[in-house]
Design goal:
It contains nine helices and 21 strands. By secondary structure, it is α/β, with parallel strands linked by helices. It has three domains: 56 residues, Nucleic acid-binding proteins (OB fold (Dihydrolipoamide Acetyltransferase, E2P)), CATH 2.40.50; 191 residues, Vaccinia Virus protein VP39 (Rossmann fold, 3-Layer(aba) Sandwich); 141 residues, OB fold (Dihydrolipoamide Acetyltransferase, E2P). α5 links the parallel β15 and β16. The longest helix has 20 residues. The protein is globular. The relative contact order is 0.10. The model has no long low-confidence stretch (mean pLDDT 96). Bound molecules: S-adenosylmethionine. S-adenosylmethionine binds next to α5, β16 and α7. S-adenosylmethionine (SAM) binds next to α5, β16 and α7. GO terms for molecular function: methyltransferase activity. Keywords: Methyltransferase, S-adenosyl-L-methionine, Transferase. This is 23S rRNA (Uracil(1939)-C(5))-methyltransferase RlmD. It comes from Exiguobacterium profundum.
């Protein structure tokens, strides 16, 4: 029998945070997850759900508060799932993110290594350069906002304190225009309606603004008037695209883009390099911290100008171009065709000619390069959350670079992949967490592994 059941009210001590930002408590060895509770606190809870291994509870009352508990500045913080840690002091967040990295490396990778302090932001608000906001219909009104945690229930929002103000303003304006022009929201349950999400992406240094209207249908009634209204009310807009996503899916963007106004891309700069960004391309969302993240990757790569380098999972070639300024040649690989087109364009625009880009899965392209005699001194990887394919790691080991720099947004898969590498001749040398997403539970890590010389 479980030590607790649904609707039980009890006091518990919180000793940890999950990677989703919920407090963790134990009752007679049984784990309970308590959103909005902080490590070190004693809280009164009500149990809301129990599974065999663990359960969930709602915070009713903080009996002994952590010294790190602060008042969240956002009025809808406790309803909205957009961020998770506004009730945690920023210093506390940075400390806790570092502890999470230490813990994951130990538990999942059996690494016991020093981890540097998390590199934080001096002003950790209004940092996001991209907003993707879902829409719903409430009577005859269009409503936009982020989902409540663990649901598809939209919490109405007029501003978001982790978004740049220009994105906030853009979302409000586009919503008002669509509402005034009678465009109905898409309804996930019935599959009817038109507007699913609106994406706003601005160039931090260029000031260019892209709006993407993500629709269920190809037809968007009154499209010319909608575009004219948006352009009139948002003078910074340089690109308006329609993206069509007809599928019943949680994936936001569909396959087809249609240019409605201006250019198909926007531009931005990172550390003096210029980048072109398409709607489908990955581009880091925190421009201030991106320079620190890439700076750390470059430092760990220890380039002297003579090295052959591979940049795997290269997106639009951001890290590649950073590295190319200090290396003999860089090979970049990326699976999204639009991103690799952007990468080639970015190399041209920045007059960097010592890069070669290939479109495809890194696990397929790396063996091809190996066959062709590419012999990298350094390999940089920056995979998505699921980490690297094992066959990719295998080829990397066969290629035997002196250094591997692993950038990751998921320390769990990173620890798994690094254990594979550590068992095959690489030593974990340095670990630096970087806070790319203040007030959320995410943490990015940059790691250096070196080949052990026999
Ligand atoms: C975390 S992003 C990093 C992008 C880039 N390094 C940057 O900082 O902007 C991961 C990238 O990997 C790409 N990707 C995902 N799976 C891939 C695979 N199997 N092979 C190559 N690229 C992949 C994604 O499209 C995305 O651009």
């Amino acid at each position: 029998m479980l030590p607790v059941k649904k609707n039980d009210r009890l006091d518990v001590h919180v000793h940890d945070l999950t990677h989703e930002g919920a407090g963790v408590a134990r009752v007679d060895g049984y784990t309970l997850f308590v959103p909005n509770a902080l490590p070190g606190e004693t809280v009164e809870i009500v149990v809301t759900k129990t599974n065999k291994q663990y359960g969930f509870a709602r915070l009713l009352n903080v009996k002994e508060a952590s010294a790190d508990r602060v008042e969240p500045p956002c009025p809808i913080f406790y309803q909205c799932g957009g961020c998770q840690l506004q009730h945690f002091s920023y210093e506390g967040q940075l400390r806790q993110k570092r502890e999470r990295v230490v813990d994951a490396l130990k538990r999942l990778g059996q690494f016991d290594v020093p981890v540097h302090d998390t590199i934080g932001m001096p002003e950790p608000w209004r940092y996001r350069n991209k907003a993707q906001v879902p829409f719903k219909q409430e009577g005859d009104r269009l409503v936009s906002g982020f989902y409540r945690p663990r649901s598809h229930d939209i919490v109405e929002m007029s501003e978001c304190l982790i978004q740049d103000e220009r994105n906030d303003q853009a979302i409000q304006v586009v919503r008002d225009v669509l509402d005034a022009r009678g465009v109905p929201a898409y309804d996930e349950k019935t599959g009817r309606g038109v507007i699913r999400h609106v994406m706003a992406r601005y160039g931090y240094h260029s000031g260019e603004l892209m709006i993407v209207l993500i629709t269920k249908t190809t037809k968007l009634k009154g499209v010319n008037e909608i575009v004219a209204d948006i352009v009139e009310r948002l003078p910074d807009v340089t690109s308006i695209m329609q993206n069509v996503n007809p599928d019943k899916t949680n994936v936001i963007l569909g396959a087809t883009n249609k240019l409605l106004y201006g250019h198909e891309t926007i531009g931005d700069k990172i550390a003096g390099l210029t980048f072109t960004i398409s709607p489908h391309s990955f581009f880091q969302v925190n421009p201030v911290q991106t320079e620190k993240l890439y700076g750390k990757a470059l430092e760990y790569a220890q380039l002297s100008g003579t090295e052959q380098v591979v940049d795997a999972y290269c997106g639009i070639g951001t890290i590649s171009l950073f590295l190319a300024r200090k290396a003999a040649h860089v090979y970049g690989v990326e699976v999204v065709p639009e991103a690799i087109e952007d990468a080639k364009q970015n190399a041209l625009v920045n007059e960097i000619d010592n890069v070669t880009y290939a479109c495809g899965a890194a696990e397929d392209v790396l063996p091809e390069w190996k066959k062709d005699g590419v012999n990298p001194d350094v390999i940089v990887v920056d995979p998505p959350r699921k980490g690297c394919a094992e066959s990719f790691l295998e080829t990397m080991v066969e290629m035997g670079p002196k250094r591997i720099v692993y950038v990751s947004c998921n320390v769990a898969t990173q620890a798994r992949d690094m254990r594979y590498l550590a068992d095959r001749g690489y030593r974990l040398m340095e670990v630096t967490p970087v806070d790319m997403f203040p007030h959320t539970a995410h943490v990015e890590t940059v790691v250096l592994m070196s080949r052990v010389e026999k």
